[in-house]
């Protein structure tokens, strides 16, 4: 089997490498400024764990190589403007939005989208970075250089946020996980819950993501984040990679999202993963490791070995058990060993589990 090279060296890359080990697939993580000599481009399968990369000798070389899976897709999906246009062309519902190219547009923007909007940089934002909450009295807080390089969206009310993670193989076959329920705070994912019961949203969401993946002739795992509103689902954004909201699959699915991605890009069988149990994922953000967590046998710790900084994702915890009641009790028992803000996330997750 060809070796896999992953652009980027972050935690998603490491988790792809771990998944490769059990399949006997060698996964190398590559720095963006790596020496080209060390990368046998034509004899490898290249994928990415990051969505936006600078123009380096390496990225220029691989961006046109057929070994770099989906190389034609990244320019479309990593620019919020072309991503939104694609969704609109496919008649898939999104939040009302506009391209923001100059200050003169503001009166029209507020009249079309309402008085509370979110400006999002076209490239490179993540975890809520590269976003500005704007109303008519603070448009001057936006950097001048942003115009032409951002879109603006209506700030909507939604009842829930969900994501669908799916994969498409080279032969066009697809596989999906159950919808994941997500809780964000300040633009950052805090916790996810995956339940076993599939509802009607599942087939609607699978249809939407299938349309997108087939249109792009996409290979690998793709993630679709949606807002749930009274009219149905609005697509928030797409990621052409494995996703934080799919981390629960490492411990509660027969095939994790990382393995599923490797299978798809290596043209290996792509059956629908079997989900064994409901699961909860808690992101560990800006906190030091606490070995007392390991006293709980249902807890799977995934620690990224990164320097702990405020607002930095440094690990995650997966909790799985066949009983949602037990899971809920375990979540409650973690309150004393997690920072006080986790009380909110735990409350939200316990509430979701009660719907199982
Ligand atoms: P990610 O970390 O998933 O890459 P991101 O930084 O790319 O996130 P978004 O997913 O666009 O950014 O936004 C982050 C969160 O901010 C969303 O999950 C949602 O909670 C909130 N949000 C984004 N857009 C809107 C909107 N138009 N109206 C209301 N809330 C929004
Ligand atoms: Mg997002």
Automatic annotation (TrEMBL):
Any single Pfam family the record assigns to this protein: PurK_C
User: Where is it found, in Gene Ontology cellular component terms?
Assistant: cytosol
For this chain, one GO molecular function annotation is: 5-(carboxyamino)imidazole ribonucleotide synthase activity
- Which pathway does the protein contribute to? Purine metabolism; IMP biosynthesis via de novo pathway; 5-amino-1-(5-phospho-D-ribosyl)imidazole-4-carboxylate from 5-amino-1-(5-phospho-D-ribosyl)imidazole (N5-CAIR route): step 1/2
Q: Which GO terms describe its biological process?
A: 'de novo' IMP biosynthetic process
Q: Which keywords are on file for this protein?
A: ATP-binding, Ligase, Nucleotide-binding, Purine biosynthesis
Q: Which reaction does it catalyse?
A: 5-amino-1-(5-phospho-beta-D-ribosyl)imidazole + hydrogencarbonate + ATP = 5-carboxyamino-1-(5-phospho-D-ribosyl)imidazole + ADP + phosphate + 2 H(+)
Give the InterPro entries listed for this entry.
ATP-grasp, ATP-grasp_carboxylate-amine, ATP_grasp_subdomain_1, PreATP-grasp_dom_sf, PurK, PurK_C, Rudment_hybrid_motif
Name the SUPFAM superfamilies on file.
Glutathione synthetase ATP-binding domain-like, PreATP-grasp domain, Rudiment single hybrid motif
State if Ion transport is listed as a keyword.
no
Cite the EC number: 6.3.4.18
Q: Which residues form the ATP-grasp domain?
A: 84-266
Per its UniProt entry, which superkingdom is the organism in? Answer: Bacteria
Q: Which Gene3D superfamilies match?
A: 3.40.50.20, ATP-grasp fold, A domain, ATP-grasp fold, B domain
Indicate the family of this protein.
Answer: Belongs to the PurK/PurT family.
- Assembly behavior: Homodimer.
Described purpose of this protein according to its UniProt entry:
Catalyzes the ATP-dependent conversion of 5-aminoimidazole ribonucleotide (AIR) and HCO(3)- to N5-carboxyaminoimidazole ribonucleotide (N5-CAIR).
Name of this protein: N5-carboxyaminoimidazole ribonucleotide synthase
């Amino acid at each position: 089997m060809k070796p896999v090279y992953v652009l980027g060296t972050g935690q998603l890359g490491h988790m792809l490498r771990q998944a490769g080990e059990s399949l006997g697939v060698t996964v190398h993580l590559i720095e963006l400024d790596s020496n080209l000599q060390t990368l046998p481009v034509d004899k490898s399968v290249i994928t990415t764990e990051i969505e936006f990369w600078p123009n380096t000798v390496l990225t220029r070389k691989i961006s046109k190589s057929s070994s770099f899976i989906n190389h034609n897709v990244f320019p479309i999906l990593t620019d919020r403007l072309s991503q939104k246009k694609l969704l609109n062309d496919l008649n898939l519902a999104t939040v009302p939005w506009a391209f923001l190219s100059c200050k003169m547009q503001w009166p029209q923007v507020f009249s079309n989208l309402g008085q509370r909007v979110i400006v999002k940089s076209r490239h490179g934002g993540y975890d809520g970075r590269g976003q500005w909450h704007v109303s008519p009295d603070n448009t001057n807080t936006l950097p001048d250089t942003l115009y032409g390089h951002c879109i603006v969206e209506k700030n909507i009310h939604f009842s829930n946020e969900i994501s669908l993670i799916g994969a498409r193989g080279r032969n066009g076959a697809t596989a999906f996980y159950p919808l994941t329920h997500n809780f964000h705070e300040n633009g950052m994912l805090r916790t996810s819950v995956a339940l076993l019961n599939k509802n009607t949203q599942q087939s609607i969401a699978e249809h939407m993501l299938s349309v997108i993946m087939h249109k792009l002739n996409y290979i690998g795992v793709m993630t679709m984040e949606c807002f749930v509103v009274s009219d149905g689902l609005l697509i928030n954004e797409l990621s052409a990679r494995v996703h934080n909201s799919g981390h629960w699959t490492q411990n509660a699915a027969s095939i994790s999202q990382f393995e599923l991605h490797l299978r798809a890009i290596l043209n290996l069988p792509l059956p629908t993963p079997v989900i064994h149990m409901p699961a909860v994922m808690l992101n560990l953000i800006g906190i030091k490791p606490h070995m007392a967590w390991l006293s709980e046998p249902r807890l799977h710790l995934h620690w990224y070995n990164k320097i702990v900084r405020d607002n930095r994702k440094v690990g995650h915890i997966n909790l799985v058990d066949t009983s949602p009641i037990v899971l809920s009790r375990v979540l409650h028992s973690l309150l004393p060993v997690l920072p006080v803000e986790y009380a909110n996330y735990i409350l939200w997750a316990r509430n979701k589990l009660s719907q199982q």
